[in-house]
Amino acid sequence: MRNTCLKLSALCAALLLSACQTTQTSNTAAQDEAPSPKNPEFTSEMAKFNAQFPNAKVSKYEEESIAHNNAQKFDERGNCHGKSKYPVTIMLLLDANGKVTNTVTDVENSKAACFRQTYASVQFPKPPIAPYRKAILLK
After folding, report:
1. Considering the entire predicted model, what is its pTM?
2. What is the Cα–Cα distance from 111 to 50, expressed in whole angstroms?
3. To 10 degrees, the CA torsion angle through 43, 47, 48, 54?
């Protein structure tokens, strides 16, 4: 009986060790993902976004547009989040009616391309100024 318990314990330990090594291999692959190349165009767009502040109407609109984005779950369309472990910041250019007319991301990779396509024709509430730049961090 004691030998059977020892053999069973050894077998369970071997299976557990094997499962842990498989998990570590897949986690290592995700950890080995290299950061994506930066988009040099994004820096000037971020400067233009920051120039919209301080402005009480713009600050209020940021709250409204974030709530709208979260309610519509735009970022969940297209299954973009799983394409990279790194976050993407997207800059949306909105017209006077709140329609996205252009998108720029801080990096160039498949996740960024997916989010650019997802947000390409999204409709937000009317912004207080036009054109309006809206930055969104997508993890």
Report:
1. 0.76
2. 24
3. 150
- Token pair 């053999």 is at which residue? 7
- To which residue do tokens 């009480």 refer? 56
For residue 120, give every residue at least 6 positions away whose Cβ sits within 8 Å of its Cβ, in sequence order, or none: 100, 103
Cβ burial, residue 135 (10 Å; 0-12/13-18/19+): middle
Q: Is pLDDT of 32 > 50? A: yes
Taking only the tens place, the pLDDT of each residue in 66-78 is 999 999 999 999 9
**Locus of tokens 């030998």:** 3
Helical (H) or strand (E) element with 104: strand 100-105
* H or E segment to which residue 5 belongs: helix 2-31
69's tokens: 């984005």
Give the pLDDT confidence score for residue 82 in this predicted structure: 94
Sole residue written with tokens 């071997």: 14
- Whole-angstrom distance, CA of residue 36 vs CA of residue 107: 6
Distance of alpha carbon 40 from alpha carbon 137, whole angstroms: 17
